[in-house]
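Researcher: Please predict.
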Amino acid sequence: MAGFLDRAKEQAQRGLTQGKQKIDEVQAQRAGGDLLKKLGGAYYAERRGSGSPEATQQALQALESHIAVNGDAFLHS
């Protein structure tokens, strides 16, 4: 009986770990999408004359930092 409970506990822990990883992945994709939108908005504003190259550069740097940490999978989905 103890072996069964140990296996069940192991499986539950594995499920929790996988669930947390998926949540982290989804949150990183959302954050990446938000940063990409900000970059697009900054670029559009710059091209229209109401934004600045500095704002576009800051948005690009934030996006590149996110990609360095989390990868660029959100760009392909």
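Model: The chain has a mean pLDDT of 94.
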